[in-house]
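QA checklist item 7 of 12: single-chain prediction sanity check.
[x] sequence parsed
[x] length recorded as 453
[x] structure emitted
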Amino acid sequence: MITTEGYFENIKEEILLEIKHAKKHIYIAVAWFTDRDFFNSLSNKSVPIEILVTDDAINSEVGILSWKHPSQIKVFTVTERLMHHKFCVIDNKTVITGSFNWTKKASIENDENITIIKGDFELARTYVDEFLSLTKQKVDNSLVDLSKSIKRLKIIAELIELNETDDIDLQTKRLQKENEVESITDIILCLEKKSWTEAILKIQSFLQTYSRLIKYEDPLIKILQMEIKQLEYELIALENECEDVQRLISIFNNLFYKSLGAYIDEIMSLKREYFSKHRQESQYSESEYQKAKKEYDGFSRERERIESEKYFNLKDDEVKDLKVLYKEAVLLCHPDKNPGKEKEAHEIFTKLQDAYLRQDLVVLREIVLQVKAGWLNLKIEIVSDREILIKKHGYLKEKYARKLEEINSLKISEEYNYGNKGESELQNYFDDKRSQLEKEKEYWINLMNDDGK
């Protein structure tokens, strides 16, 4: 299974955690490497580690080029140009990429981001190929190549559909010898148990996920393809973050209207009534009445809408399940990941977002099961036209920038900041607001009474 996660905080801690779990090999390409904490963590590993940095004064005087390296760490340099890559590949299956250089300044002062993609072996291989090309090494053909496994899985699926199960054992044994990919191991277990339905569902999910990348002879197309796939993952991770922010805001708004809606409704009603009595006095009074009426009507509609929506209160472990399921489903049915099926994918994606915002774990599970069962019946076509890829690359970069602007705007809102706080702080906020509203209500009541004298 492929997972993708975007991080805007605690980036250093997340990278150190991934390094800690490395078991086979680590490739790192960053312009500058001056943070000793990363280097110390790498020095404690016993796996081969290859690092590529820019050969400049920063790295030479205060960075990795000035440090003594243990035997398992091999450092390469780029001298003829500035190397802007910032990626890390761990165990040929985990890719870390984003704006983050491995420096103290990036950890402490800068606004940075990374995306961690796990389980996309083809993407990992593309990054490793790029690393080997930059360091003028031969491409490692021992890396995970799924093309043969994909063909074999298609054969197995056809054998199951034709009910020719006698030939499946041979294909299963060959499949087992070809790789150690976790999701394929799960398929093999189903085949060995002769659980054909479950095997077909897992095969369909696997093919839908991995049959998205082909090798291009044109170097520019290969680079565009790699960057487009990276942008797609980064955009999905950013959208996941945005949806989570919106989920917290939705929950806060629901609690806000339930806790304080009646007070605000009554105050707005009093204001409308007061200005209604004075609307004939002047053009300004009429304007104030229309404004109060518009505010009251708008608030009433919004309150009715929010209070009619069903939100589910979940325990911490259920919220964790909700997030995992949502991220898994997004990778399968996001419109940008389903060329030729955008309309169908958009309909499913909209239902998915609605269930996530309302924290409806039951509906979310149903959607995930249906998507895995081939709801979209996808036939992925990879575009190899250079101009189309260039346009798509530009479109994704622009979309990413807009989404980043949206999420930054949401995160400075009062709704998000209080929705992200603990239960006691939230209760204090509502108590303070209630006290303020009671005083305001009393003000308008007194104003109305004085007006009647």
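[x] summary fact logged: The first helix runs from residue 11 to 20.
[ ] second reviewer sign-off
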